[in-house]
């Protein structure tokens, strides 16, 4: 199994575990309890190589006392962790391109037993999954297709070609996010292009709407902003967050837009000008969303957004969240990448609390909740 160490983990409570990925960190976080079982799920944290010289990241869990595990399973740096009920999936990025299904109950037995299956999607860069029973749609960012796989063994069951939405000479429309609801699959396309000198051009983003059963394209919606990063479905509408150029500017080419799925039209409801920059990371639960505002490298604070009221407020205490966020039952788990102060926190009722993490843990990269 590529990039996975044969190492065992400490015994895990069968009641619930949490996983994730890694980057560079310390052991200075305070020892505190996570929210109780009634208000929180257990979280998974993935850490990457903070200096980009470390090729491996670490899959760890957070127990019910808010402690990040001492031991870990290793995956490629900059991987993403996704949960579906009690299932854990690790999506390894471009260069490794694997999807691995990890069985929480067998983690203590080591990678050979804990990893139920691992499938490679060569040069495809898997970035997201949307589940439908024992099947899941997979967003392949550097490929010209979306694929449906079996969650039993990872084998491809069906594919949807997306190359028609690619820009200029590009082969892929660069999917950023997918959502599945009521038999409809929504795909969020960045549609950027790059020249030989790696100068990037970002046109307005696009949402493509497919019948999830047949794979047939139903419609598209032109977005009003550039470089969309993530989306969420709420109250019959689609809310899309966008970054714009990687310049940290504050303008109307980025922000949060609301897609009216009946009218097939989109409007900007919170501009990057108001937010102070574009949105790098974005998670939501019902009408409450959290956005990481990219003002420059190392400067990505978090705001809490009310999608109904179109208002927002800053989450104090987070300087560099990047995309390291997950929310469930009203509790936000967020990682701070600030050099020398890398930590994982949970945020509840306006209070930010650091989780206890082991010495040598790297900076948080991706979080998922059960």
What is the fold's blueprint, element by element?
Elements: E1 20-22, E2 43-47, E3 56-61, E4 73-76, E5 80-84, E6 87-91, E7 98-102, H1 111-114, E8 115-120, E9 126-132, E10 135-140, E11 145-150, E12 156-161, E13 175-181, E14 184-189, E15 193-194, E16 200-201, E17 204-211, E18 217-226, E19 228-234, E20 237-242, E21 255-260, E22 265-271, H2 272-275, E23 278-285, E24 288-294, E25 302-306, E26 311-315, E27 325-328, E28 331-336, E29 343-348, E30 351-354, E31 364-369
Parallel strand pairs: 1-2
Antiparallel strand pairs: 2-3, 3-4, 5-6, 6-7, 7-8, 9-10, 10-11, 11-12, 13-14, 14-17, 15-16, 17-18, 19-20, 20-21, 21-22, 23-24, 24-25, 25-26, 27-28, 28-29, 29-30
């Amino acid at each position: 199994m590529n990039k996975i160490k044969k190492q065992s983990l400490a015994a895990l409570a069968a009641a619930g575990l949490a996983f994730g990925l890694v980057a560079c960190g310390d052991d200075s976080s305070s020892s505190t309890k996570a929210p109780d079982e009634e208000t929180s799920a257990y979280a998974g944290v993935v850490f990457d190589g903070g200096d980009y010289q470390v090729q491996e990241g670490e899959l760890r869990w957070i127990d019910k006392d808010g402690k990040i595990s001492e031991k870990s399973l290793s995956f490629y740096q900059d991987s993403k962790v996704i949960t579906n009920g009690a299932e854990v999936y690790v999506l390894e990025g471009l260069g490794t391109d694997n999807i691995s299904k990890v069985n929480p109950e067998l983690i203590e037995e080591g990678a050979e037993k804990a990893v139920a299956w691992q499938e490679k999607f060569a040069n495809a860069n898997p970035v997201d999954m949307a589940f439908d029973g024992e099947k899941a749609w997979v967003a392949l960012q550097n490929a010209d297709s979306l694929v449906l796989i079996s969650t039993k063994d990872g084998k491809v069951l069906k594919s949807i070609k997306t190359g028609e939405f690619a820009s200029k000479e590009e082969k892929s429309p660069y999917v950023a996010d997918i959502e599945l609801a009521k038999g409809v699959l929504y795909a969020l396309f960045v549609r950027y292009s790059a020249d030989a000198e790696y100068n990037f051009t970002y046109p307005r983003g696009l949402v493509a709407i497919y019948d999830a059963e047949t794979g047939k394209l139903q419609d598209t919606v032109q977005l009003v902003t550039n470089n969309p990063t993530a989306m969420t479905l709420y109250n019959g509408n689609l809310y899309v967050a966008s970054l714009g150029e990687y310049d940290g500017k504050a303008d109307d080419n980025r922000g949060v837009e609301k897609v009216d799925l009946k009218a097939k039209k989109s409007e900007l409801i919170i501009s990057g000008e108001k937010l102070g920059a574009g949105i790098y990371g974005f998670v939501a639960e019902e009408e409450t969303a959290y956005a990481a505002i990219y003002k420059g490298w190392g400067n990505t604070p978090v705001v809490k957004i009310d999608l109904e009221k179109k208002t927002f407020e800053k989450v104090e205490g987070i300087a560099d969240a990047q995309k390291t966020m997950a929310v469930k039952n009203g509790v936000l788990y967020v990682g701070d990448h600030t050099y020398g102060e890398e930590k994982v926190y949970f945020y509840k009722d306006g209070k930010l609390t650091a989780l206890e993490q082991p010495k040598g843990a790297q900076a948080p990269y991706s979080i998922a909740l059960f």
